[in-house]
Write a structure and sequence with these properties.
single chain, about 400 residues, mainly beta, four-stranded antiparallel sheet, about 5% helix, disordered N terminus
Amino acid sequence: MYKHLLLFFCLTILFGNSCMDDPTSKSSTVEEKNTPLQLIPEEEEFDESRFKWGYIDKNGATVIKGQFDDGLNFSEGRAAVRVRGKWGLIDKNGDWVCEPTYKAIWSFKEGLARYLDFNNKMGFLDLNGQIKIKAQFIEVDDFQEGFAKVQEDNLFGFIDQNGTTILPSKYEAVRPFNNGFAKVKSNKKWGIIDKKGKEILPLKFKKIGNFSNDVFRVKEETTYSFINANGKKILATNYTTASDFHEGVCAIKDENGFWLIDKKGNKITKEAYDYIRYGNEGFWIIEQENLQGFMNTSGEIIRPPSFPILNNFKEGRAAYQKDQLWGYLDEKGDYITPARFGLNWEFQEGLARAAFRTGIGFINKEGDTVIPPEFYDVRDFQEGLARVMVVEYW
């Protein structure tokens, strides 16, 4: 009985988290906001957890036994793990690279990992667990394309991997570099800079999308336009809702509903839908009368709207919901599994987590169960290992 109650409790938490990250959210065309960093509670607030975390391989065999109070997935051969109130780093043998020392450590990106000391200052560690950039910032983000966002006082700028200031902290908000460009905000207006800090687009826009398909989606007043990296407007529209371009098309909304258009502004879908969003891997999720399906970039319907929820594609598979249960479709719209899981997740490294009645296990792309559903909690595979929760006692 205790086992079933614990499983229900864990799945409830997982379901809640999955809802918060639900890719079906209709706010995807809205510019993201600066969200404050969620700091780790003070060390003395941590007790030893009765639930330990370890790591398994793709055969389901334990590689690193459950011994940590918390942990993250492996990235670049390292995983951050917590013992009581301190975080350290381990390698894939489970050996310490950095003994538990810090208030928090994040996953590695481009050879460096963020850390937070007990003075609530942030810096970066290298793959040997040594301090590469000392803790001195209020907030930092992961490195992307060689640069990391940093916060000093209430303003933001960028540093390089040596900790050298490349762009002083002078903006109200910044976004990570993407394809050589970064979004920056000043006086409540957004613009674009390159890696030398040169303004590519002036800071005059209410919203700017990512540099996708060689264009930026921008909103100056009430409607969207599309501008290339030279600042030339290639498409002006009268639409107040629009997505970024993906593979030559984007979604827009007019008085009749959502459509796909090409870079010349031509509508390529035959009818309007209640909602359209990009579903990854060249597919667009469509919604009509509260049911979802998907089409390709030519506007060809592959699966008519028939599911209450259809998640985005990953590795050629998409999770769907039917009769309150979950299953998977392939890119042709064919069923890989019937709707038989209480909850499921996207594929990662060829395997996907799925919640059975007895626990969480893994299935392959053919829908076969390859790791039995015997875990209370388990996370996606990354670099060949997945972290799992082990109940020490009850």
